Amino acid sequence: MTAADDxxxxxxxxxxxxxxxxxxxxxxxxxxxxxxVADVVNHLAFGFLxxxxxxxxxxxxxxxxATDRAPxxxxxxxxxxxxxxxxxxxxxxxxxADPAVWEGESHLGGGxxxxxxxGAMMTGEFVVHSWDLATATGQELAVPPxxxxxxxxxxxxxxxMGRDAGWIGPEVAVAEDRPAFERALGVAGRDPARTT
Length: 196
Fold this sequence. Notes:
Elements: H1 3-20, H2 37-56, H3 81-96, E1 105-107, E2 112-114, H4 115-137, H5 145-165, H6 180-187
Antiparallel strand pairs: 1-2
Helix pairs in contact: 1-3, 1-4, 2-3, 2-4, 4-5, 5-6
């Protein structure tokens, strides 16, 4: 599989968990500290939009703040969030399908970064937050071993920066003989044994 295939698989996983997290669960807590289910759905939706713009190299509008509601969800009732997120996720995956998009530099709203690093980071983010949603809402999450390895590599590459910035918690110890995805969760500050 290519990096683009991995990103598309991560988007598909995230969309499936968003669809499985009905609006009646949106006020529930999640493993993602201080985030409700609605917050994680919004975070993934915004992530799809940011990934899309990173692929196309379009600048972010000045009115965007990653802590806000995703612009395309702002005026929608929560019952329509899943389909709107699915549409934006598909657009992001399609934009990253072009191998040329992975070359050179792009951005995530700040300074320039290698596009390949952004693509890998977003892949890992989508998979880990899919676990957050699945765990919070009682869904089964099947992460293929290869995608687990990609997620572990992505999380390992960004964990120190995320901890310094306060958006990744302390690492949770996970045995080296556990599957790569469980170890990725530990690196991302999650306890893979958590069930709610």
